[in-house]
Hints:
Blueprint: E1 3-7, E2 11-26, E3 31-46, E4 60-72, E5 79-93, E6 97-111
Antiparallel strand pairs: 1-2, 2-3, 3-4, 4-5, 5-6
Amino acid sequence: xxxxxxxxxxxxxxxxxxxxxxxxxxxxxxxxxxxxxxxxxxxxxxxxxxxxxxxxxxxxxxxxxxxxxxxxxxxxxxxxxxxxxxxxxxxxxxxxxxxxxxxxxxxxxxxx
Length: 112
């Protein structure tokens, strides 16, 4: 499962993953490519509730996101893990329509 907290300029939301897929492909014993996709539904809390009116359906958010990463992760070994990738997402809120976001990310960790 997946639980995501989103903080935007106009609202905050909690989103639950309804569909989460991950595909890993090992390039060699040390490097791998990982692809992820997520479909989430959530509930919004608008920051401007005292000054603006919102439709009841604006309380809902729908999100589709993807991430692609190349990472150093030795197979069957205790090691440091690091990677770099790109992430894209499209979310929908009734009164605002579709919004596209993209960015880079860095992944780091320890494999025990």
